[in-house]
Amino acid sequence: MTYECFTVSIADNIAHIQMTRPDKRNAMNAAFWRELPDIIRDIDDNSKARVIVISSTGSIFSAGIDLAMFSADIGGTQDKNDPSYGLNFYQNNVLRLQDSFNAIEACRIPVIAAIQGGCYGGGVDLITACDMRYGTEDSFITIYEINVGMVADVGTFPRILNHMPEGVVRELAYTGRKMGSQECKSRGLYNEVYADQDAMMKAVMALAAEIATKPPLAVYGCKRIITYARDHDTKDTLDNIAVWNMSMLIPSEMMEAMVSGKQKRVGNYADLPKRKA
Questions:
Q1: 224 and 203: one domain?
Q2: Choosing from 145, 160, 221, 253, which is the catalytic residue?
Q3: Catalytic residue among 105, 153, 171, 256
Q4: What span, in angstroms and rounded, lies between the C-alpha atoms of 45 and 74?
Q5: 153 is an active site residue
Q6: From the candidates 66, 125, 131, 253, which is the catalytic residue?
Q7: Is 65 known to be catalytic?
Q8: Range of the domain at 221
Q9: Do 67 and 183 share a domain, yes or no?
Q10: pLDDT at 11
Q11: Taking the model in full, what pTM does it have?
């Protein structure tokens, strides 16, 4: 399938989603917000891959939300002087944008972000919804919304606080300053930093390939429980793990994992079941 904002390739159980509007600094236009969740859900629902890698093209990972969408009201026609304009705009548009990145977090398989150059505003919303983040030496993030009189509202704040101290997040949010790659790593946002995009992509694809060899159901369980644990206390999480394991463990998959490990070969595991429409 052809997309306006992305190319998608799938090989060896790894889906690679690339943003492909470098001439527009990979700004997130209206098509972006439609296409990304559709791509993610298609891969996940139809069990087309076991890992997703999201990367970009050009010198900038993403310039964030294309502000032209707001000036054009994303195709809307409502009078901006109408007292209900703000509420309607939020319900009709912002919630939809949030859902685009919620699709990443809700995806059953791991999603890895590979970041080169600048990652502005909505780009930060995107990468914080991913399971892991890797960057080039020249990469940086900026919660840029404050510079255009906005509050980041597509997912940055509830997610980035899981990676960095509150005071640091407040500083970034209030100032819009750039945080470079090494600080991103030292603060816990990045898993690793690489000299350039080629080195980063080689390492990220190697990591994705390793994850793709693991039992998909167990990987899904790990992702689900880690996300649950982030938002719940220890007791609730332990109860949730117990229910998951009682319901979802497959003895034959566990045996295959142990046998294949002993035999030093890749395990032969079932893919996740396709989701019904």
A1: no
A2: 145
A3: 153
A4: 28
A5: yes
A6: 125
A7: yes
A8: 216-262
A9: yes
A10: 98
A11: 0.92
Which residue among the candidates 64, 117, 121, 122 is catalytic per the annotation? 122
The pLDDT confidence band at residue 74, using thresholds 50, 70 and 90, is very low
Could you tell me if 200 and 236 lie in one domain? no
Q: How many domains does the chain have?
A: 2
Write the CB contacts of 125 (distance below 8 Å, at least 6 apart in sequence): 101, 152, 154, 155, 156, 159
Q: Do 222 and 205 reside in the same domain of the chain? A: no
The confidence band for 104, taking pLDDT boundaries of 50, 70 and 90, is very high
Looking at 181, 212, 243, the residue that finishes a domain is 212
